[in-house]
C-alpha cells in the first residue's frame, strides 16, 4: 500500500463509488478503501433479514412467516420514485394542456414560449395561466419536478419546466414508470461502479481500518492504515471519516416497514411511491413513502417493504410520519432510525479533501446527483461531461 495515488476514496456509499469510477475512467490512479467489509456504506442493502433485526436491536429472530432470511435485501436508504396523481375530468384537461406546453417547450425557441418569459416569469404564474388547482400544483412540483419545498414557485419557471420535461421524456421511454430500481436492491449500484473503477485500474480494499488522514500545511498528503501510508493528491470521503470537518444541519427519520400486502389504493402495485406534500400536512418538508417487493428480489414471496422518510422538524419525529404510517397498516414489523444530516464545512479546494453530504429524506437520486456533480467540479475545475464519460467507456466496451 506504500504507493502514491492521484485520488484516495474512503467509504463505499453510492456517491463515493460513482466518483471513484469517474476518476478512474478519467485516467486517475485511484485507491478506494472502506472500514466495512461490504459495499454501500449508510446506503447498503442488508441481507439476510436476521442481520436487519440485529442492526436495529430487535429481540429474537424473524418469524417463520417472513420466509427465508436470504430472500431479503433491505435498502437502508432507497432511492427511486414512481408517482400517481388523482384529479377530476376538467382538471385532467387543463393538466393535459399544461403537459403539451411543457413537451413543446424549447428554451432556445421563443416561438414555444406562448407569452411566458422563462427567465423572468415565476412558476406560480405559469400554473395560474393554465388554471391548475392546488392539488395538481403540489403533485407537479413535488412528484414530477422533485422539489422538496415550495420555494420554486416564485423562481423563474425555466428550470421547473425542464424538470417536468425530463420526467415526461423518461416516462415515454419506459412506459409505466420513468424510474428504475435495481434487482436485489441498491447495494448493486455501488458494486457496479466499483467494477467500472477496477476495469480502469482502480484498487479496492474492503474491511480496511483507517487510522489517520495525514495533512501537511493544510493539504492532504495521504492516508494511514494498519501502519502503512498511501500518499495521494486528493481525497474523497463520506462524513463519517472526517467528523471534525462536517457540521450537522438537521436530521432525517426513516422507518422500514415489512408488510404482507401492497399499499391500499395502488391497484395492488408491486412497487410505488407516495409523496405527501408538506403543505397538506402542515409541515415544511414532504413525507416520502417508497414501496418495493419480491418483484425486485428484495423480499420473500408475498411480502413488501415500505420505507417512510422525512426531515425531522420537531422533538417527536415519529409523530411527524403518522400520516404515512397510517397508509401502510397493518404493519408486521417496523425498524426506526434517526440520522444526522451532515455537510462539509468548506469546499475542500484548499485541503483537497472533498466530503460528500449524507443522504437526505428524498427517495430519488436528484440531490445525490447534484452532490456528485458538485464534488467533481470542485476537484477538477470543470463541469461533469456525461457524453465524454460514455465515449471513454465505449473505448473499452464498444458502442451500446
How does the SSE layout of this entry go?
Blueprint (H helix, E strand, L loop, with lengths): L3 E7 L3 H12 L4 E4 L11 E2 L2 H7 L18 E2 L13 H16 L18 H7 L4 H11 L13 H17 L13 H12 L3 E3 L6 E5 L2 E7 L2 E10 L8 E14 L12 E5 L10 E7 L10 E8 L5 H4 L1 H7 L4 E12 L8 E3 L10 H15 L5 H12 L3
Parallel strand pairs: 1-2, 1-8, 2-5, 8-14
Antiparallel strand pairs: 3-4, 6-7, 7-8, 9-12, 9-13, 10-11, 11-12
Helix pairs in contact: 1-7, 1-10
Report what the structure shows.
Helices cover 30% and strands 22% of the residues. With 400 residues, the chain is an alpha/beta fold. The strands form three sheets. Strands 1, 2, 5, 6, 7, 8 and 14 form a seven-stranded mixed beta sheet that branches. The protein has a five-stranded antiparallel beta sheet with strand order 10-11-12-9-13. The chain has a two-stranded antiparallel sheet with strand order 3-4. The two termini are 36 Å apart. Strand 6 (212-216) and strand 7 (219-225) form a beta hairpin. Residues 81-85 have low confidence and may be disordered. It has helices at 14-25, 49-55, 89-104, 123-129, 134-144, 158-174, 188-199, 317-320, 322-328, 366-380, 386-397, and strands at 4-10, 30-33, 45-46, 74-75, 203-205, 212-216, 219-225, 228-237, 246-259, 272-276, 287-293, 304-311, 333-344, 353-355. The longest helix has 17 residues, at 158-174.
Amino acid at each position: 500500500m506504500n504507493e502514491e495515488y492521484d485520488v484516495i476514496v474512503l467509504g463505499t456509499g453510492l456517491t463515493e463509488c460513482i466518483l471513484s469510477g469517474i476518476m478512474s475512467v478519467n485516467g486517475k490512479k485511484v485507491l478506494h478503501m472502506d472500514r466495512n467489509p461490504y459495499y454501500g456504506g449508510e446506503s447498503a442493502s442488508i441481507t439476510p433479514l436476521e442481520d436487519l433485526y440485529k442492526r436495529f436491536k430487535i429481540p429474537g429472530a424473524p418469524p417463520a412467516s417472513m420466509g427465508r432470511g436470504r430472500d431479503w435485501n433491505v435498502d437502508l436508504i432507497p432511492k427511486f420514485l414512481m408517482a400517481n396523481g388523482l384529479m377530476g375530468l376538467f382538471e385532467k384537461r387543463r393538466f393535459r394542456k399544461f403537459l403539451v406546453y411543457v413537451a413543446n417547450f424549447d428554451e432556445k425557441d421563443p416561438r414555444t414560449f406562448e407569452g411566458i418569459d422563462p427567465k423572468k416569469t415565476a412558476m406560480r404564474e405559469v400554473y395560474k395561466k393554465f388554471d391548475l388547482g392546488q392539488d395538481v400544483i403540489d403533485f407537479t412540483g413535488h412528484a414530477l419536478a422533485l422539489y422538496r419545498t415550495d420555494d420554486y414557485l416564485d423562481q423563474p419557471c425555466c428550470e421547473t419546466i425542464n424538470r417536468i420535461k425530463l420526467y415526461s421524456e423518461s416516462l415515454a421511454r419506459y412506459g409505466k414508470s420513468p424510474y428504475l430500481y435495481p434487482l436485489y436492491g441498491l447495494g448493486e449500484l455501488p458494486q457496479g461502479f466499483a467494477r467500472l473503477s477496477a476495469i480502469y485500474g482502480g484498487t479496492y480494499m474492503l474491511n480496511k481500518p483507517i487510522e489517520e488522514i495525514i495533512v501537511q500545511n493544510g493539504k492532504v498528503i495521504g492516508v494511514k492504515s494498519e501502519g502503512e501510508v498511501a500518499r495521494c493528491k486528493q481525497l474523497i470521503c463520506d462524513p463519517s471519516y472526517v467528523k471534525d470537518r462536517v457540521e450537522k444541519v438537521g436530521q432525517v427519520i426513516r422507518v422500514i416497514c415489512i408488510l404482507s400486502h401492497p399499499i391500499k389504493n395502488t391497484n395492488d402495485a408491486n412497487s410505488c411511491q407516495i409523496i405527501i406534500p408538506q403543505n397538506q400536512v402542515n409541515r415544511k418538508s414532504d413525507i416520502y413513502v417508497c414501496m418495493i417487493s419480491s418483484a425486485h428480489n428484495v423480499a420473500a414471496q408475498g411480502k413488501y417493504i415500505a420505507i417512510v422518510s422525512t426531515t425531522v422538524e420537531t422533538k417527536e419525529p415519529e409523530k411527524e410520519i403518522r400520516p404515512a404510517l397510517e397508509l401502510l397498516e397493518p404493519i408486521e414489523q417496523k425498524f426506526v432510525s434517526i440520522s444526522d444530516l451532515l455537510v462539509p464545512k468548506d469546499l475542500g479546494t484548499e485541503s483537497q479533501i472533498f466530503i460528500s453530504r449524507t443522504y437526505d429524506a428524498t427517495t430519488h437520486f436528484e440531490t445525490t446527483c447534484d452532490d456528485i456533480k458538485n464534488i467533481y467540479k470542485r476537484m477538477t475545475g470543470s463541469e461533469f461531461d456525461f457524453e465524454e464519460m460514455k465515449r471513454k467507456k465505449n473505448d473499452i466496451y464498444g458502442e451500446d
